[in-house]
Amino acid sequence: MKRYSVFAVAREAARYHTGWERAWKSPEPKKKYDVIIIGAGGHGLATAYYLGKNFGIRNVAILEKGWLGGGNTGRNTTIIRSNYLQDPSAAIYEKSRSLYEDLSQDLNYNIMFSPRGVMMLAQTEHEVRGYLRTAHANALQGVETRFIKPDEVKKLVPIINIDGPRYPVLGALWQPRGGTARHDAVAWGYARACSDMGMDVIQKCEVTGVRQEGGRVVGVDTNRGAIDCDKLGIVVAGHSGVLAEMAGFRLPIESVALQALVSEPIKPCMDVVVMANTVHGYMSQSDKGEMVIGGGADGYNNYTQRGSFHHIEETVRALIETFPMISRLKMLRQWGGIVDMTGDRSPILSKTPLENCFINCGWGTGGFKAIPGSGWGFAELMAKGSSPLCDEFSMFRFREGKFIDESVAAGVAH
Ligand SMILES: Cc1cc2nc3c(=O)[nH]c(=O)nc-3n(C[C@H](O)[C@H](O)[C@H](O)COP(=O)(O)OP(=O)(O)OC[C@H]3O[C@@H](n4cnc5c(N)ncnc54)[C@H](O)[C@@H]3O)c2cc1C
């Protein structure tokens, strides 16, 4: 595949852009692969990429029932941070954040990583104590964060109201190298790199059954016929419970809708990401000028990619309290995704009761930031049977009571 570069852009400009080749191929499924990954979201594609790059396993198919990145990967608000409380979480999220730093160069695809800084507001005494604790934990884990005072918050975000009537801003947990990236580009960049390594990225290919013999996986049934494999990775986020049932085991996962919305574009007014977890809303400004806004998950299980209206109202109300100037904005679009939540709000990267079948899920409301790190670790787990990044995130931790509890510490897990 030809490399993208400034020279390629100049060359194509001179010949009216007639020479660009397709970014990835659209092959027919083969009869058998060494590895099949179900789900071409960011986590599935990153897993395939690092299987090829780090372990030389390239006879791989990534099967996607819809289109590339059409699940949560293309629907999220793209916040990237790694200031989690527990050691295993900090390790995988920080690995991920550091891979994001030069992912564009690695993939030869501009994923528009923007380390503009992420701020989590402390608006109650409880949050202040919680974030001070996280800042100390992060110092021990080698994650660069610090707790900042209200005057520094105001300096970084002049449009914020720090003397809010209900919840004044008492400080914030600040991660200067957190930020955002372009979500579609992350999926497209990994897909292009996988295709370039000879892997088959197959869209509109829905897995309808998992075939097994003698307790080990031997292949999958799809709407395009049966395909054999030696190893299977299930990476389907909100549909994890459905695929697990096909493979014959149960997961401690609930699927709920989480939604986001964007405003009309306005002039640059905020160059960091702000999360207000007590009033429950978060906001950043896109390169186009739209304010990108996210809120809470629905309080009931569902498989709709919509989200409920009362959450939009709650989220916007919360943000108007924190940023009064947005009360004049018109909202342009709203959408939802199906997120996969575990009880301890930490992911599952694990072997399963079915031999040679692995599962990567449970990223809930916060897995975009983890895509490169999760792919790195999960590829190692699939190739070698164990990975220091993943071993603590086994699905069997729920049976053994070894929770990695981020639910209280992280406020919201975005
Ligand atoms: C509104 C919203 C805001 C969010 N904001 C953030 C944020 O700011 N920061 C952050 O870090 N995270 C955020 N997240 C979470 C993040 O988007 C997800 O954790 C992450 O994208 C999950 O990626 P994935 O690859 O596991 O899943 P997905 O991208 O959902 O990919 C799974 C794929 O599997 C496919 N699939 C399902 N069943 C089958 C089948 N039977 N056969 C074949 N394919 C199948 C689906 O079509 C889908 O494409 C947000 C999520 C939402 C919905």
Automatic annotation (TrEMBL):
One GO MF term attached to the UniProt entry: sarcosine oxidase activity
Broad class of where this protein is predominantly found: cytoplasm
Subcellular location: Cytoplasm
PROSITE patterns in the cross-refs: RHODANESE_3
Highest taxon of source: Bacteria
InterPro entries listed in its UniProt record: FAD-dep_OxRdtase (IPR006076), FAD/NAD-bd_sf (IPR036188), Rhodanese-like_dom (IPR001763), SoxB (IPR006278)
Family stated for the protein in its record: Belongs to the SoxB family.
Protein name per Swiss-Prot or TrEMBL: Sarcosine oxidase subunit beta
Organism for this UniProt entry: Lutimaribacter saemankumensis
